[in-house]
């Protein structure tokens, strides 16, 4: 059984007619968009906003109606994956490089449902290097600041070239070791000029985590 798909399909059960839905990014979020797309084909009426160009394109393929931010009054629910989840529901996100748009959409949603398989559960965040979106200007200075905070900040590369986000920024993957205080680190990172956003999503913003297991069961946090 595909555990990511299981979690995604469980989350999509929460989506009802008339809702505005935030679409996440990544392989688990893709399962959710697939499931929503099938429901839309079967008559579900929703509007959506996407956290990446990739998710927007997928939604368009299914005929999911996309709403412009200028017309948006409310996002009822956002469904998105994560790279790590701690027992309180704090997250590391950004493995797919979409963390800035994901965080804006998640933090402006009434409900934020996180979908993961059980491999994403950790006792303490930090094994997965924390993605930090940085503006390209004077990036070496920003990297120095990130290293001063105790990380090994490395600019992400893809196919031998710098990975560029949908916002024309770069991603610094920052290993901090175990992150004992995600709240404090989030604040420290956001104080660095040049940092656009970091991949720490704090538990207070997470409504529910749905965990899929390969044995076909789901669990909730
Ligand atoms: O934050 C993300 C993209 O920026 C993803 O949600 C995260 O990387 C999890 O990806 P996947 O569902 O493919 O395991």
UniProtKB/TrEMBL annotation:
Reactions mediated catalytically: aldehydo-D-ribose 5-phosphate = D-ribulose 5-phosphate
Domain of life (superkingdom): Bacteria
Residues given in the record as substrate binding sites: 25-28, 80-83, 93-96, 120
Record-annotated active site: 102
Record carries keyword Isomerase: yes
InterPro entries: NagB/RpiA_transferase-like, Ribose5P_isomerase_typA_subgr, Ribose5P_isomerase_type_A
Signal peptide range in chain numbering: none
Entry's Gene Ontology molecular function annotations: ribose-5-phosphate isomerase activity
Pathway(s) of this molecule: Carbohydrate degradation; pentose phosphate pathway; D-ribose 5-phosphate from D-ribulose 5-phosphate (non-oxidative stage): step 1/1
HAMAP family associated with the record: Rib_5P_isom_A
Purpose of the protein: Catalyzes the reversible conversion of ribose-5-phosphate to ribulose 5-phosphate.
Protein name per UniProt: Ribose-5-phosphate isomerase A
Native species: Pontibacter toksunensis
């Amino acid at each position: 059984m595909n555990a990511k798909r299981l979690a995604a399909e469980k989350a999509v059960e929460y989506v009802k007619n008339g809702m505005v839905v935030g679409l996440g990014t990544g392989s688990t979020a893709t399962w959710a968009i697939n499931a929503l797309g099938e429901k839309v084909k079967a008559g579900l009426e929703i509007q959506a906003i996407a956290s990446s160009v990739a998710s927007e394109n997928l939604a368009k393929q299914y005929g999911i109606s996309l709403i412009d931010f200028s017309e948006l009054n409310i996002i009822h629910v956002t469904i998105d994956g994560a790279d790590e989840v701690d027992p309180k529901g704090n997250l590391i996100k950004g493995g797919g490089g979409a963390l800035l748009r994901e965080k804006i959409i998640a933090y402006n949603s009434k409900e934020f449902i996180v979908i993961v398989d059980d491999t994403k559960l950790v006792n303490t965040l930090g094994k997965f290097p924390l993605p930090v979106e940085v503006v390209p200007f004077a990036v070496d200075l920003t990297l120095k600041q990130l290293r001063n905070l105790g990380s090994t900040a490395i600019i992400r590369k893809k196919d031998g070239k710098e990975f560029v986000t949908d916002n024309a920024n770069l991603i610094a993957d920052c290993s901090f070791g175990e992150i004992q205080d995600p709240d404090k680190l989030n604040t420290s990172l956001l104080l660095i000029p040049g940092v656009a956003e970091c991949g720490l999503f704090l538990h207070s913003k997470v409504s529910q985590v749905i965990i899929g297991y390969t044995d076909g069961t789901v669990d909730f946090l």
